[in-house]
Amino acid sequence: MSSKPDDDYLAKLTSSYSPVYGQAITIRPMQPEDLDIETEFVEGWSAETRYNRLFSTTVRTTPERLKQITRIDYTRDMALIATLMLEDREVQIGVARYVLRDDNKTCEFALAVADAWQHRGIGRALMLNLIDSAAAAGIETMVGDVLASNTPMLHFMRSIGFAIEAAPDGPEIRRVSKRLTPVAAPIQEKDAPAQNP
Ligand SMILES: CC(C)(COP(=O)(O)OP(=O)(O)OC[C@H]1O[C@@H](n2cnc3c(N)ncnc32)[C@H](O)[C@@H]1OP(=O)(O)O)[C@@H](O)C(=O)NCCC(=O)NCCS
């Protein structure tokens, strides 16, 4: 798929809900036009969030890298963002993304929510939407690496059915993985039971 999918495709992956004070949160696929709000979001992370997401407090996400990660292929990779309107301006408060591995069956995910918006169900909503979109794309397994010290995230992963194991990269990392439930394909005419005449 090109980096500019049609409006119908984007609309199918867009949803809205109000977890706090009636504030409407939209979850939708990221687009290249979101470079500014993604940059503001990433630059707003606290040291703790940066460490838990990037496993480092010193790594800087360069402008080139930000440009790269806002150009989504929607086939080999996907990014869903959570946004809301603040003073007539759309602000990004979370992102969940996956990248398909070369085996075409497994994807690696990452998740982050802005510090001020954590613990309000936004990470859960993003993650469940990402799992649905990966399953709908026919991906079989979702995996991710989480710091062993990131107990809230590990707790969350377990609560949505991820298995947690040691990771090859060392004792400070845990590998989390989940088999995705295949999405039933619509019944094709040739598969439909024969009709009695
Ligand atoms: C981890 C993170 C994505 C969770 O997002 P969130 O919006 O704060 O999470 P939610 O409010 O949706 O909560 C989801 C679950 O996480 C767990 N959780 C979240 N915060 C927690 C806390 N302070 N203590 C214990 N559990 C917590 C709970 O299991 C919760 O489920 P519940 O609501 O049924 O109790 C967010 O805290 C974050 O961005 N952290 C920094 C980056 C990071 O750690 N990314 C993961 C590595 S890829």
Please, could you describe this protein's structure?
- With 197 residues, this protein is α+β, with helices and mostly antiparallel strands.
- The chain has helices at residues 7-12, 35-43, 47-54, 63-70, 122-136, 151-159, and strands at 15-20, 23-29, 77-86, 89-100, 106-113, 141-147, 163-167, 170-179.
- The protein has an 8-stranded mixed beta sheet with strand order 1-2-3-4-5-6-8-7, with helices on both faces.
- β7 (163-167) and β8 form a beta hairpin.
- Rg estimate, integer Å: 18 Å
Ligand roster: coenzyme A
Counted by DSSP, the helix tally is 6
Q: Unreliable stretches, pLDDT < 50, 5 or more residues?
A: 189-197
Beta percentage is 25-35%
Question: If you average the pLDDT, what whole number results?
Answer: 89
Q: In this structure, how is the largest beta sheet organized?
A: 8 strands, mixed
Instruction: Determine the structural class based on helices, strands and strand pairing.
Output: alpha+beta
- Principal-axes geometry comes out as globular
Helix residue percentage: 25-40%
**Would you count the extended β strands for me?**
8
Distance between the termini: 42 Å
Q: What's the short story on this structure?
A:
The protein is 28% helix and 33% strand. The protein is built from 6 helices and 8 strands; from the N terminus they run H-E-E-H-H-H-E-E-E-H-E-H-E-E. The chain has 197 residues and is of the alpha+beta class.
